[in-house]
Design a protein that fits this description.
The protein is mainly alpha-helical and 112 residues long. The protein has one domain. It has five helices and no strands. It is elongated, with a radius of gyration of 17 Å. The N and C termini lie far apart (53 Å). The model has no long low-confidence stretch (mean pLDDT 83).
């Protein structure tokens, strides 16, 4: 249940469900693509062990910051997502890691 302040905010500037779903799908596509590209980069740089995973987490944070405070959101991600923390900052960390590890190991084995 949303708090009274949250309900008041949604009454003043409602969040359209279709638009929020579209934004979440777009964010998922961006995360998948950047995770794969980051895996290719980590493999090409021959990063191994914890350095590779640190590289992935740094990429995840960087992409989240660019989406939240970039020119499209103008520093107000709550305008475009229902739950900013779970969708923008915490979302798809594990799901994107699968694509990252796949492309990381492929590129690493081709380089080394």
């Amino acid at each position: 249940m949303a708090s009274l302040a949250e309900q008041h905010r949604l009454l003043i500037s409602p969040l359209v469900a279709e638009s929020a779903a579209h934004n979440t799908r777009t964010l998922s596509n961006i995360r998948s693509l950047t995770s794969s590209l980051t895996g290719l980069t980590a493999g090409t740089l021959a990063l191994s062990s914890l350095w590779g995973f640190a590289f992935y987490l740094a990429q995840h944070v960087l992409v989240s910051v660019l989406i939240a405070y970039g020119p499209a959101a103008r520093g107000k991600p709550e305008k475009y997502f229902y739950n900013v923390w779970s969708e923008l900052w915490g979302g798809e960390v594990v799901g994107g890691m699968m694509g990252f590890v796949l492309t990381w190991t492929l590129a690493y084995n081709l380089v080394v």
